[in-house]
Specification:
The complex is a heterotrimer.
Chain A: H1 19-23, E1 39-45, E2 51-57, H2 59-62, E3 67-72, E4 83-84, E5 88-89, E6 91-92, E7 98-99, E8 105-111, H3 114-121, E9 125-130, H4 137-141, E10 154-155, E11 164-171, E12 174-182, E13 193-201, E14 213-219, E15 223-228, H5 233-244, E16 251-255, H6 271-281, E17 285-288, H7 291-295, E18 302-311, E19 317-329, H8 335-345, E20 354-363, H9 377-395, H10 399-406, H11 425-436, E21 446-457, E22 464-470, E23 476-480, H12 489-501, E24 508-510, E25 513-514, H13 529-556, E26 563-566, E27 569-572, E28 575-578, H14 579-587, E29 594-600, E30 616-628, E31 635-645, H15 652-671, E32 677-678, E33 681-682, E34 701-707, H16 729-741, H17 752-761
Parallel strand pairs in A: 1-17, 15-16, 19-20, 23-24, 31-34
Antiparallel strand pairs in A: 1-8, 2-7, 2-9, 3-8, 4-6, 5-10, 11-12, 12-20, 13-18, 14-15, 14-17, 16-25, 18-19, 21-30, 22-23, 22-29, 26-27, 27-28, 30-31, 32-33
Chain B: E1 22-24, H1 28-37, E2 42-45, H2 51-56, E3 63-66, E4 76-78, E5 82-86, H3 91-96, H4 106-110, H5 116-119, H6 124-129, H7 137-143, E6 147-152, E7 155-160, E8 174-181, E9 187-191, E10 198-205, E11 208-215, E12 221-225, H8 231-236, H9 249-268
Parallel strand pairs in B: 1-3, 2-3
Antiparallel strand pairs in B: 4-5, 5-8, 6-7, 6-8, 9-10, 10-11, 11-12
Chain C: E1 2-5, E2 9-16, E3 19-26, H1 31-38, E4 57-60, E5 63-66, E6 79-81, H2 95-102, H3 112-125, H4 131-138, H5 149-168
Parallel strand pairs in C: 2-6
Antiparallel strand pairs in C: 2-3, 4-5, 4-6
The chains are: A alpha+beta, B alpha+beta, C alpha+beta.
Chain lengths: ~775, ~270, ~170
């Protein structure tokens, strides 16, 4: 296909392919999955933050009406390896000897109804012996803190490339540490100024609307059927195979539409308990968590970030050292992976001669923290791009100018061994600054702040496979493992196929995900849908197209490059040939199916710090125009402008929606949204008290501008979207507050109380 | 004082309520009778916005008394002395009712509570009797010195709305109405731009002002003061333990004074 | 006084998506369970369980109400509209549905049924709502994905379509 030709489907104003089923209510989610004879699971949760479990008496529960099975920690003896986690297998399916947070799962029941299951749980007696609780990282790192894991859980350190390293349990209550270093630290000696600052980052819950839910069926002959609201069905399958020692070929994981995840729905959540109960009862078991339980199942990482940055008097950045602490909660979940990213990304989009970064995962008695949109990049950007602004102001340099001076150039490797940055970051900053009115004269107490969020995109060492099949009359089947979680992957990937196959989008069917038949994919994360899977899908489609053209060329006695496709006809000069009769002529009346496979993985590269070069760079630019009320500390957002670079927008409204949704999540994080604890107890763990942005919280003016700079590695120059615009919002707001009233906040959220306290401290209120 | 919520199971849902007897009284007397004779504990049911939250938090009624037919609970009216609001009045009905003109500022404050959807469903009675700090009518009605008419088997008693938080209502379990006294021509201003941390209401009437401050987690604190009291002096009277994990006392004293100053200015500005 | 049920069992009759229906159910059955589990209308999504998020909104006598927090017995004699009831018999989408589809005013889709029904009620009360009114109404429900802007634009688009239709009639 001629890449110079104008595109028909890519970038066209067309409805998302899931539009009809979603606006009519026909879309089906795991929440909707049901089977005849299905039982319902519920779990008993620890009311203690940290305690020994002395005794669990479930005998009364077993006798309750409707109860088919009761599980407690002792039942894990039947399970070959009853712990899970990403790098570190430290989370037991049910607590055995210890509970480590309020909400830890202690016992499980399968009953005819959820009500019966809960009634039975109420009859279970648990005897605890309290242990000292570690509500936060300071407590966990204290000299005299008890070790939350007395014995080292099984864990791995993946291979890293140049400058990167990882370590398991480097010190008390730190389950993993990631470090990165490049350049000579002695350059600090050359710096005119060295600035040290500390930042704090509060934690949010994902508040995905569809709960954590699965329907598990352990059938006779150890065949497993699982429908689950999950972002990474293939790694989940692997984990289940490992836990229960079942061949992966006997596990079918189905993932229908997912009602939001934002990172939370990776790896084991509800599945192991549901499977144990199903094996015990021989019945399908549905396990659906309440939203209240969701708050205790996975969260963002709270963080403390300490930065030391060396700079020349003219604003040239020279060196940055950082130490990041992530509150990982009671179990490691994805914390080591988040640490890699927070540690790696904390340098931000600027050029340094020396970078040295350490990120520790600190275990506490809080709910387990895991992946959250931005994946460490949000924490990193908050500190990194706040400090750039602070340094500029301390040096009397315009913060935008300082950024412009230090940004890594287009195509320049971000750090030695990395891929070149695939956006012109100055172009983006300029655009956002213009849109937000950076140069406009300002009234008193009004300020404009800019910020750039920066992250490597597409995942690390992430393979994706795809298959495209075309049947005799031109119906296209797309099979790939990217989960439709709202991001528009079904649409965008189908558009890529339609573009390559020169057929209408409606002819491409995105087949249901079933790990038995769908080609392998590492997971729906890291903005990898278009940038990684997109490349696999494009290759699969091109392979099919080539096979079709080859067949047609042979039939027509010409060469494939003399032919082109047009909605399942072959165009040869002025002639047009229907393909269906041609195929039946060649393969017989039942026809044939052309099948093409595609694969993409960034090659391994030991010179790259994370062992592969970043697939692409996801960059989010933000500009905020706000006013501060100096008497009350309130912040009013007049205008929020965000922008991402889609490389090439496969679907413009989808791209816009990704940036708008990400930016509003970022704005909530900046201003108010957080999990509030009293010690180890979450006090706002339900929808009423946990405040997420509503439509009334939108800024007066809210703009998301999709750039199409055209440098992406994905199909037709596309890059990933979805996380970038979340990253820079909080720092842009803090930067604008300093411009407005001259005080700097370094702790999120930027509440009126913090603004006012800073003003009072500075003698300005 | 802030106290963290008690630890609980969190797995409860609507499914935990078994089928229970259901009564639909037509009058206050019938409702009281139903509460007395139904399997205990019987729960009053009206708008439904708070009921299901309580169910999830552990409440387990053995019978339901559905109040929707009790017309006496829907009345809204005023005379020269008082504004009376029936317990079944929804937010939506209340703020649009002309009787609210008796208290300038009350309708404007009320109309901002909750959301468009919830306002049509949630009732005055549910909002007050839930005794949930997040709910706001208690703040407004405490500022206005309102009283609650509570019905029981032996008749009706009057309780100050601010006392509902700790009152034992076992003998008089049914809120019939709330009465706002009109002596001294009360006016109200409600500042809620600080949500989700704290809000404050100021009521002025001839001879006295009343300030009420509440947070997402703390019950309303009421403070009577002489007209003309400097705002900073008023908010400095906040109790020493008036703070929660989301907002400090110092901030409420400081920012509250700034808001109070503006509230006074708004209320004293010529219409 | 009426004793509607002594034993927790209750029969109800109401209008569902324009059709009269009756069911034997229980006093503790919620409207969302009745619709989803007993009548297989799974377009009503359940999320927070506390009336807050609005994902389970259905129209009861034309106004949105959280079906997770409504007893089935409450709709006796009333008219209930779910997302399944918005399409015309020939499958033509309601203007609000069409606008949501056209504007991509959804992502994961879990809030979408509730949002569309909320918007439907808004447009029944305000033919040409201004942006402020739309924001206020849409603030009734939570969407965690879109940032609301495209939803607001879809409501504006639907209002225009409906006004155009009315003018043409």
């Amino acid at each position: 296909m001629n890449d110079q030709a104008p595109l028909r489907v890519i970038g066209a104003e067309i409805e998302r392919s899931d539009a009809h089923v979603k606006v009519t209510g026909r879309a089906r989610y795991s929440y909707d999955a049901a089977r005849p004879g299905m039982l319902h699971a519920k779990v008993l949760r620890s009311t203690r933050a940290h305690a020994k479990v002395l005794r669990v008496d479930a005998s009364a529960a077993r006798a309750m009406p409707g109860v088919h099975a009761v599980l407690t920690g002792v039942d894990l003896a039947d399970v070959p390896m009853p712990v899970y986690g990403y790098f570190i297998k430290d989370q037991p399916i049910l607590a055995t000897d210890r509970v480590r947070y309020e909400g830890d799962m202690v016992a499980a029941v399968a009953a005819e109804t959820e009500g019966q299951a809960n009634a039975a749980l109420a009859r279970i007696v648990v005897e605890y012996e309290d242990l000292p609780a570690l509500p936060d990282m300071e407590a966990a790192l204290a000299e005299d803190a008890p070790e939350l894991f007395e014995e080292a859980p099984i864990g791995i350190v993946p291979p890293y490339g140049a400058g990167s390293s990882g370590a398991l349990r480097p010190r008390r209550n730190v389950c993993y540490s990631y470090a990165y270093e490049t350049g000579d630290p002695s350059v600090f000696d050359e710096c005119d100024h060295v600035f040290e600052d500390e930042f704090r980052f509060s934690r949010m819950h994902h508040l995905h609307l569809e709960p954590f839910v699965c329907l598990a069926h352990w059938k006779e002959g150890d065949e497993i059927e699982l429908t689950t609201s999950c972002q990474n069905p293939f790694p989940l399958r692997k984990e289940i195979a490992r836990i229960f020692r079942v061949p992966e070929s006997r596990i079918a994981v189905h993932v229908p539409f997912v009602g939001g995840g934002f990172g939370s729905k990776n790896n084991c959540k509800t599945e192991p308990i549901a499977l144990m109960l199903s094996r015990r009862t021989g019945r399908p078991v549905r396990f659906c968590l309440t939203m209240e339980e969701g708050f205790l199942t996975n969260t963002q990482h709270a963080a403390i970030l300490r930065l030391k940055t060396g700079v020349m008097a003219d604003g040239t950045l020279v060196a940055r050292q950082s130490h990041v602490l992530l509150d990982s909660g009671a179990y490691s979940d994805a914390s080591p992976l988040v640490a890699e990213k927070a540690g790696y990304r904390v340098a931000g989009p600027y050029r340094y001669k020396h970078i040295s970064s350490v990120c520790d995962c600190v275990m506490t008695n809080q709910p387990p923290a895991g992946p959250f949109r931005g994946f460490g990049g949000t924490q990193a950007t908050w500190a990194s791009d706040s400090q750039i602004d602070m340094i500029a102001r301390r040096l009397g340099i315009d913060p935008m100018e300082m950024r412009m001076k230090n940004l890594v150039d287009l195509h320049e490797p971000w750090v030695p061994g990395e891929s070149g940055v695939d956006s012109d970051m100055r172009e983006g900053l300029d655009l956002v600054a213009r849109e937000v009115g950076y140069d406009r004269p300002r009234e008193a107490n009004r300020g404009v702040g800019l910020s750039i969020g920066f992250k490597d995109g597409g995942g690390v060492n992430k393979p994706a496979q795809a298959r495209v099949k075309v049947s005799t009359n031109g119906d296209v089947h797309l099979m790939c493992g990217t989960v439709e979680i709202g991001q528009g992957a079904r649409t965008a990937l189908s558009q890529v196929v339609a573009e390559v196959m020169d057929c209408p989008l409606a002819r491409v069917e995105y087949l249901p995900l079933d790990t038995r038949y769908t080609p392998f994919d590492q997971g729906t994360n890291a903005s990898s849908g278009i940038s990684v899977m997109g490349q696999a899908v494009e290759r699969a489609a091109r392979s099919v197209r080539q096979q079709v053209l080859q067949m047609a060329a042979e039939e027509l006695g010409t060469e494939p490059d003399k032919l082109r496709l047009d909605n399942w006809t072959v165009i040869h000069g002025n002639e047009s040939h229907a393909l269906a009769p041609m195929i039946m002529g060649r393969y017989g009346g039942t026809g044939f199916e052309f099948t093409g496979d595609g694969f993409h993985k960034q090659p391994n590269d030991h010179h790259a710090p994370l062992e592969t070069k970043s697939v692409f760079w996801e960059i989010g630019w933000a500009g905020v125009d706000l006013s501060v009320d100096p008497e009350t500390g309130q912040v009013f957002i007049h205008k929020l402008v965000v922008s991402g670079d889609a490389g090439r927008a496969i679907h413009k409204l989808v791209c816009r929606g990704q940036d708008e949704g990400a930016a509003l999540m970022g704005l909530g994080q900046a201003l108010y949204e957080r999990m509030i604890h009293d010690g180890t107890r979450l006090v706002n763990g339900e929808a009423l008290m946990y405040r997420v942005p509503l439509a009334e919280d939108l800024p007066e003016v809210f703009e998301a501008i999709t750039q199409e700079q055209g440098h992406g590695p994905g199909p037709f120059g596309a890059k990933g979207m979805g996380e970038g615009a979340m990253l820079p919002v909080a720092s842009a707001v803090a930067n604008a507050i300093e411009e407005a009233v001259g005080v700097r906040l370094t702790e999120l959220p930027l509440t009126p109380e913090r603004v006012l306290s800073a003003l009072v401290e500075a003698g300005k209120a | 004082m802030f106290t963290a919520p008690a630890p609980r199971g969190l797995a409860r849902s609507q499914a935990d309520l078994p089928p229970v007897p259901l009564y639909r009284p037509d009058s206050v007397a019938e409702a009281i009778h139903a509460l007395d004779t139904a399997p205990a504990p019987a729960a009053l049911y009206a708008g439904g916005t708070d009921f299901f939250a309580r169910l999830r938090e552990g409440e387990a009624p053995a019978a339901l008394v559905w109040l929707d037919r009790v017309q006496d609970l829907r009345e809204v009216g005023r005379d020269d002395h008082a504004l009376r609001l029936g317990a079944l009045v929804t937010h939506h009905e209340a703020f649009r009712h002309p009787a609210l003109d008796a208290v300038p500022g009350l309708a404007a404050a009320w109309r901002r509570i909750a959301t468009v959807r919830i306002r049509r469903q949630a009732t005055l009675g549910g909002n007050l009797m839930a005794r949930r700090t997040r709910y706001e009518l208690s703040i407004l009605l405490t500022a206005l010195g309102a009283s609650a008419q509570m019905a029981g088997a032996d008749g009706t008693i009057d309780l100050p709305v601010e006392d509902l938080w700790q009152a034992d209502t076992a003998t008089h379990p049914l809120l019939v109405s709330v009465t706002v006294p009109l002596e001294g021509c009360p006016r109200l201003d409600y500042e809620r731009s600080m949500r989700p941390t704290f809000t404050q209401a100021l009521a002025m009437r001839d001879g006295g002002w009343r300030l009420v401050v509440a947070t997402e987690y703390l019950r309303p604190w009421a403070h009577d003061m002489a007209p003309g009291t400097p705002p900073a002096e008023a908010t400095a009277a906040l109790p020493a333990d008036f703070a929660d994990p989301a907002v400090s006392r110092a901030h409420m004293v400081r920012a509250g004074a700034a808001f109070l100053k503006r509230q006074i200015e708004r209320m004293e500005a010529p219409a | 006084m009426t004793t509607l049920s002594e034993n927790g069992k209750i029969d109800i009759a109401f209008t569902l998506n324009g059709q009269p229906v009756s069911r034997a159910t229980t006093t503790s059955r919620t409207l969302s369970d009745l619709l989803r589990d007993d009548m297989d209308l799974k377009g009503t999504r359940v999320a927070c369980g506390r009336t807050v998020c609005g994902a389970c909104s259905v129209l009861v006598d034309g106004f949105p109400r959280a079906a997770c927090s409504t007893f089935a017995f409450e709709v006796e004699g009333r008219s209930v509209t779910t997302i399944e009831g918005l399409e015309a018999e020939d499958g033509t989408l309601d203007p609000v549905q069409a606008a949501f589809a056209k504007k991509s005013a959804f992502q994961c889709g879990y809030c979408t049924s509730g949002m569309i029904l909320l918007a439907r009620a808004l447009l029944a009360e305000h033919q040409r709502p201004d942006r402020e009114t739309i924001r206020e109404w849409i603030s009734s429900n939570i969407c965690r994905c879109t940032g609301y802007q495209l939803i607001i634009e879809a409501v504006e688009e639907a209002a225009e379509t409906m006004a155009g239709k009315e003018a043409a009639e």
